[in-house]
Amino acid sequence: MTPEDRIYALGIWQGPIEIEPITGGITNRNYLVRDRAVCRVVRLGEDIPVHHISRQNELAASHAAHAAGLSPAVIHHQPGVLVLDFIEARALTPDDIKNPAMLKRVVPLVHACHREIARHFRGPAAIFWVFHVIRDYAAHLAATGSTYVARLPAVLEKAERLEKAAGPFDIAFGHNDLLAANFLDDGKRLWLIDWDYAGFNTPLFDLGGLASNNQLGEEDEHQMLEIYFGQAVTSDLWYRYSAMKCASLLRETLWSMVSEIHSTIDFDYAGYTAENLARFERAYDLFEQDR
């Protein structure tokens, strides 16, 4: 059955529908669907155990994020399908995130995610511990004979150093995939979407991911941390944050290495691996200089 056939067969539409693919997704296939009454977003995607993605967890997080006022409502769901209310808005870009005025809007939304969603989450909740994910990815790459196997011992050694450096850890409910495109601006407020990787984590992982995914400069990073914590950035906080930013880049690198093997989505994963590996190595060198 084609994606279009699956969407037609949902049985929730009023009259004929128009289906428009939404470009840019590298984990799911997303579509904008209009019937004669409303417009919805349809996300098609099964569980992806190798990436620690459970659609039941994504559904629960989506419900909780909506209840917290951060994300669109869930309209319908069934195995492999999530239908969401459509928000007339534009997705942010990395350049948007770098704008100091936008960063002042984005960071409180991330803070609200960390503090509010857990109050509304129901059922078993995931833990997204980046260092476990890194070790699991490395084991999978080794077991499947990846072309990156020779790099894995050094990767795991660096990950161990980062895990020791990043503590002690606070725990909050994290989004864990803060790409610019997961923030929507409707002209009045921001929304946070796409809860594939949601789960309890340290807030510093989301902050490190926000910075690394959008290539914030050091001045921007200090502003981000000061907004989030409401105080000047200490050397200890900067050191722990830098370790988690490196971990975020390393996880993204290994995610792409694994996706090179498994993904059926048309995307240049090899190029994405090379880009993130180079960025991780630069960030790790800077982290080592601060030790």
Automatic annotation (TrEMBL):
Domain of life of the organism encoding this protein: Bacteria
Molecular function in Gene Ontology: ethanolamine kinase activity
Entries under InterPro entries matching the protein: Kinase-like_dom_sf
GO cellular component, one term: cytoplasm
GO biological-process terms attached to the record: phosphatidylethanolamine biosynthetic process
Keyword set includes Transferase: yes
Coiled-coil stretches: none
Keywords, ordered alphabetically: Kinase, Transferase
Pfam families xref list: Choline_kinase
Protein name: Choline kinase
Source organism of the structure: Rhizobium altiplani
